[in-house]
Structure formats: C-alpha cells, structure tokens
Amino acid sequence: MKNKNLVIGLVIGALILVGGGVFVLSSNKKAAQAPIEAPTENEILTLNPEEIGLELTTIKNNQEVVFSIGKPEGIKTIEYELTWGAKVEDKFSGSVLDVVHGDQSNGPIEMNGKPYKAEIVMGSCSDVCHYDKGVNNIKIILKITKTDGKLYQSERTLEP
Questions:
Q1: Residue 7's pLDDT is what?
Q2: What CATH architecture applies to the domain 44-158?
C-alpha cells in the first residue's frame, strides 16, 4: 500500500513538473514573438500659406474676417479653426477684459478643385449681429487633405 501511495505521489509530482515546464516554455515563446504595433496616425506635414494661396483679411471695419484659398489644385478637403482676441467689458466690475473667441468648420469642406472663400462674423448674430470690439491677433489654422490622402497644416495670422 505504501508503494502504491509512493507511485501515485511520484506520478502527481511528475505531472506538476511537466505542466509547470510547459507553462513556462509557452509563456517564453509569447514573450519572444514580435510585438504587434498599433496603427500610427498620419503624419501632418506643413504647407506654406503661399503654396495654396491662403489669404486672410478683415472687412466691414474689422467686424468680419475673410479667408480664401486661391490655389486649390490637389486639395480634396479643408477644415479650419479661426481664433481672434477681443475686448469685452465685464458687466459687474466695468473693467475691460481680453478674451479669445473663435469659429471652426463643421467637418471637412469639399474643395472640388475650386477656389474657396468664407466670410466669418467676429461676434454673434441671431436677429441682430453684435460685433466684437478691439479685435486683434486673428489666426487661422487649416487642416488640408490632399487628393493623395496626405495631411497638411497651414496657418496665417493677421493683426488688424
């Protein structure tokens, strides 16, 4: 009976050793495999604003800003973010505050090989427009997708 218990104990011990060895060896194989790389985002290249004919001006006594792209060749879509500084009177203290306002495109704008022009009110409009005062430091940043799929960024600033 003692021999039978000894044999059973040795078999169980051998199974534990073999199972542990298989586990260790299989985990080493997984560690040795090449890691899976996460897909990287497209690199965003810089475009000189002159290359696309990017112009930025103000009209209506600095109440609106106009941006245009005069050289749309090779451009599939654009998206923009426009920011500007303004002076706002604090209604409680009466002091004048420097604030930053802005506007952005609602998704990609299809270029279709045609020049683009947008006029944007620097203020707020509902029934009547209320224009920002003391407009300064106007900046536009464009995200440009070319027809070859490459992403670019271009920007221009204006101090009226």
A1: 47
A2: Sandwich (2.60)
